[in-house]
Structures are given as structure tokens and as C-alpha cells.
Amino acid sequence: MNAQSPLFQIEAKRLAAGVSREQLAGLAGVSEKHYRRLVNAGVTPRPAMLAKLRAAAGRLGRAAAQPDEHSRLVRTCFFAALALVCHRAGEDPAEVRRHDPSRRATNDPAWLKAADFRRRAIAVVNQGLNVRAAEIARALELTPAAICVAMKAVEDQRDADPALDAELEQLASLMSGGEW
């Protein structure tokens, strides 16, 4: 990869911001594996992919900077909701947090369970506190699309399981100051 390569310039911005490839790929909405392949192969990506990567690199300064107070509050609410979801399920929140979401270990039942709890916590924050999906995405350093996918998965589960629907309604009520 030469200094004139668009990927070289994107990599330089990434390194200067102290951001991992995984974080940059997440901001661009692409997999880290695909981004790594592009960089290692030294090829110029398609124009649409390049545009996504350039946009993500342009946001690196904001992403690497300290999150604003609102994002910190939303993130704190997410972890409080995650603790409530885990407590209700009889699971240890620390064990759930140990399973790295970026690992995408879809063959690991424990990871899948942790991912389900994270999705439920996102739904509780969204519905119980009326926090917009874009705000949750920013606070958790995810893409808005990832939040939408999580919300759809939870809504599908709620439609199929009335007990889960009632439980999430109660948790949303708890988060908004409702009855214990």
C-alpha cells in the first residue's frame, strides 16, 4: 500500500486517532475481517465501500474523543438495564459482559445468550426511557442499523412469547420510575 492509496490515508487517520481497525470498521458498517482484507491486499475498494470508509475516518475524531454527557448517561442506562435483564434471568451481569459482542461467536451458546440479553437491554432503554435508536447507537459505539436489527429481534421474540413481552414491559416501567 503506497502513501497515495486511499486506504493508506484512512489507515493513517485511524492510527492517529488511536482507534482499532474493528472500531473503524464498525463506524463504517463493515466487518473488521473485510476491512482487514482490503488493507492487507492493498487494493482500492469499490467506490461505495471507499465512501463508507472515508466517512467513518472523518468521524474518528468524534468517536475517539470523550463521549458527551448524554452518551455517557445513555451508556450507563444501558448497563443498568443489562443488569436488570440479567438479574431477572438469574444470570451474572459480569459474565454476560465478559462475552465480547464484536467476537460474533455465533456457535457459542453462552455468547448467544449474552447477545440476547444485550438486545433486550437495548429494547428496555429504547422503550422504557424513550431513547432514540441513534442515541443508543452513538453511546454504545454501534451503527444505527445494528440497533434496529437488535430491536427487530426483540420485537419478534416478544410477539412469539407473551411472558417475555410482559417481563420487558415491566423492566421498561422500572427503568422509567414505575412500580417495582
From TrEMBL:
<dbReference type="Pfam" id="PF01381">
    <property type="entry name" value="HTH_3"/>
</dbReference>
<protein>
    <submittedName>
        <fullName>Helix-turn-helix domain-containing protein</fullName>
    </submittedName>
</protein>
<feature type="domain" description="HTH cro/C1-type">
    <location>
        <begin position="10"/>
        <end position="53"/>
    </location>
</feature>
<dbReference type="InterPro" id="IPR010982">
    <property type="entry name" value="Lambda_DNA-bd_dom_sf"/>
</dbReference>
<dbReference type="GO" id="GO:0003677">
    <property type="term" value="F:DNA binding"/>
</dbReference>
<dbReference type="InterPro" id="IPR001387">
    <property type="entry name" value="Cro/C1-type_HTH"/>
</dbReference>
